[in-house]
């Protein structure tokens, strides 16, 4: 298997059963030493399959802590002609526990104009 980013994501538009293409994605880490501010780690754009597999360099070493992934869903809805939606963006906050820093984290987002869901993927 080729080396991959330690954190990846996937957007699926469940309202039409297709990948969420060209969704801007931002990954941040909570910096508890700096008054709990968010520090940007990476930005990307979902590909034609709705995935971002290159957010971080494969050699990037994760540290235990809290992370936030933001999906700019309003840009996606505009690109597919949807004008009425509830979430202009989706933020998924997740934690990497001490001792689990070497695991791979995959963040899927199942999206429709009025709802979303996520889970820890593989």
UniProtKB/TrEMBL annotation:
Assigned keywords, A-Z: Hydrolase, Purine metabolism
Gene3D superfamilies: Transthyretin/hydroxyisourate hydrolase domain
Transthyretin/hydroxyisourate hydrolase domain boundaries: 2-121
One GO-annotated biological process of the protein: purine nucleobase metabolic process
Keyword Hydrolase among record annotations: yes
UniProt-annotated binding residues for substrate: 10, 51, 119
Catalytic activity: 5-hydroxyisourate + H2O = 5-hydroxy-2-oxo-4-ureido-2,5-dihydro-1H-imidazole-5-carboxylate + H(+)
Top-level class of the enzyme under EC nomenclature: hydrolase
GO molecular function: hydroxyisourate hydrolase activity
Entry's family note: Belongs to the transthyretin family. 5-hydroxyisourate hydrolase subfamily.
PANTHER family tied to this protein: 5-HYDROXYISOURATE HYDROLASE (PTHR10395:SF7), URICASE AND TRANSTHYRETIN-RELATED (PTHR10395)
Assembly mode: Homotetramer.
Function: Catalyzes the hydrolysis of 5-hydroxyisourate (HIU) to 2-oxo-4-hydroxy-4-carboxy-5-ureidoimidazoline (OHCU).
Protein name per the record: 5-hydroxyisourate hydrolase
